[in-house]
Write a structure and sequence with these properties.
The protein has 14 helices and 17 strands. The strands form four sheets. It has a seven-stranded mixed beta sheet. Strands 1-2-3-15 form a four-stranded mixed beta sheet. Helix 4 packs antiparallel against helix 11, helix 9 packs parallel to helix 10 and helix 13 packs across helix 14. The longest helix is centred in the N-terminal third of the chain and has 28 residues.
């Protein structure tokens, strides 16, 4: 599909015989009926915990690259990419070929943790992509199939290696949905995890932003660890995301990341980099820690490493490998199809320079989207790294967040989750799938595949800009002066 096509597949065409148009209309109606029936049955049968299906009422039946086609015949540009899982987009030929090769070979598909040629090829390719100083002393643990399983394994690993129990994590973090991973995530309540400030410019926890805000965050961390009355004993480890995804697409400053490495190394605290969403070229380097040049002690990997199939691993420094046999296991840690798909994906990203491509395309997208922010005050901030991009929607008429020096007109406005949801709906109407994230679900997120073309990039930007324009112009609260219209919101 050309990316300039309408989001809705046309039923008829000029000059087409009337009977053909009638038949096409009938087929289209049957498709819509089937589509609606599937959605009704999903709503009646599935858990109330379902998420994406609520905001994205589509029924995918075919997909290729950036494009998804629904059961009702509509086509979409997918900038969710399986929450970052699809580095090469849907059904990339090299991934399909790798899967077919294993299926046709007669190789076992389930092998627990036995050695196989497929696993050996995956491990070899993965180690080839890792930061060299990290790879030369690395060990790998295959976990359960999800990123949250790898986070749990990483916590168990550093606790076993250090004999300590506590963990350090950051405000806004997201590490998964199992109990330990949730404890380290931003919404936790009853925890064994000390929460640290994560630096950001737009909503700096200290109201300062920039290098000064990041330095204060680092000093707070040092004080917490060195103050004998802080209530935080020396922990088993520190886990961080080089770019917070679910937290609102917030890239960690490279200088701050290096400071975290210095602080943890000086106190013998293993540093865990959660690269579940940032890895495999997403941020403009193969692994996001490469931006800062640090060597973590542990890396948690999932999503794109399986080439669209479930796979998760923990890679860590060899002297942390103190587990006894069976200390951590998982029935589905030997997914051969995922390893084959993952090997093909890792090699393709590496050989075709897709990380560098992500950096170039991402910079172009950020530049154009910042122009959108200049046009519409409801776009409070545009940020990201590589092809991990977010737009924070705000209420322009709301009071600005005060700084240490008091209120200023330039301060960030209150988050506007209802406007973000409206932009998401308008995007879907235009055939563009985007995700929401951030503290109050007020950030529109873009995670397109690394294979996105220049033409597709323009289409995504055009559709998103049109959606933002429709929301901004359709709400009297969002005038250029930030004043509410006389007749209130529509």
């Amino acid at each position: 599909m050309a990316v300039t096509e309408s989001a809705v597949v046309p039923v008829g065409a000029p000059g087409e015989p009337e009977g053909a148009r009638d038949a096409g209309a009938g087929a289209s109606e049957r498709a819509r009926t089937a589509h609606e029936g599937i959605l009704r049955r999903q709503s009646a049968r599935e858990s109330a915990a379902r998420t994406y299906a609520r905001a994205l009422p589509i029924v995918p039946v075919r997909a290729r690259g950036l494009t998804i086609e629904g059961a009702d015949g509509r086509r979409y540009l997918d900038c969710l990419s399986g929450a970052g899982t699809l580095a090469l987009g849907h059904n990339h030929p090299v991934v399909l070929e790798a899967i077919r090769k294993v299926l046709d070979s007669g190789a076992p598909l389930h092998v627990l943790d036995l050695a196989t040629p497929v696993k050996d090829a995956f491990t070899t390719e993965l180690f080839r992509t890792l930061p060299p100083r990290f790879a030369e002393r690395a060990r790998i643990q295959f976990c359960g199939p999800a990123g949250t399983d790898a986070v749990e394994a990483a916590f168990k690993l550093v606790r076993a290696a250090t004999g300590r129990t506590g963990m350090l994590a950051f405000t806004g973090a997201y590490h998964g949905m199992t109990a330990g991973a949730l404890e380290a995530s931003g919404g936790a309540t009853d925890v064994r995890v000390a929460r640290l400030p994560y630096p950001q410019d737009y909503r700096c926890p200290f109201g300062i932003g920039g290098e000064r805000g990041a330095e204060l965050a680092a000093r707070w961390t040092e004080s917490l660890l060195d103050d004998t009355k802080s209530g935080v004993p020396v922990p088993a480890g520190m886990i961080f995301e080089p770019v917070q995804g679910e937290g609102g697409v917030i890239p960690a400053p490279d200088t701050w990341t290096r400071r975290m490495r210095e602080i943890t190394a000086a106190r013998s605290i293993p540093l865990i980099a959660d690269e579940v969403q940032t890895g495999v070229g997403r941020t403009g380097t193969f692994w996001a820690v490469e931006h800062s040049g640090i060597t973590p002690d542990v890396m948690v990997l999932s999503k794109a490493i399986g080439g669209s199939l479930p796979l998760a691993v923990v890679v860590y420094r060899d002297d942390l490998d103190v587990w006894q046999p069976g200390a951590h296991a998982g029935t589905f840690r030997g997914n051969q199809l995922a390893m084959a798909a993952g090997t093909a994906t890792l090699a393709y990203v590496r050989e075709h320079g897709l990380a560098e491509r992500a950096a170039t395309v991402g910079a172009r997208m950020l530049d154009q989207l910042r122009g959108l922010a200049a046009e519409f005050p409801c776009v409070g901030d545009v940020r990201g790294r590589g092809l991990m991009i977010g737009l924070e929607l705000v209420a322009p008429e709301g009071p600005p967040q005060p700084t240490p020096d008091g209120p200023t007109p330039e301060g960030p406005r209150p988050a506007a989750p209802e406007l973000a949801a409206a932009v998401q709906r308008e995007c879907l109407r235009r055939g563009l799938i985007v995700e929401l994230g951030g503290r109050r679900s007020s950030v529109v997120r873009l995670l397109p595949p690394l294979t996105i073309s220049d033409e597709q990039t323009s289409a995504v930007l055009d559709r998103l800009a049109d959606a933002v324009r429709a929301v901004a112009q359709g709400d009297r609260r969002l005038g250029r002066d930030g004043a509410r219209g006389a007749d209130g919101p529509r």
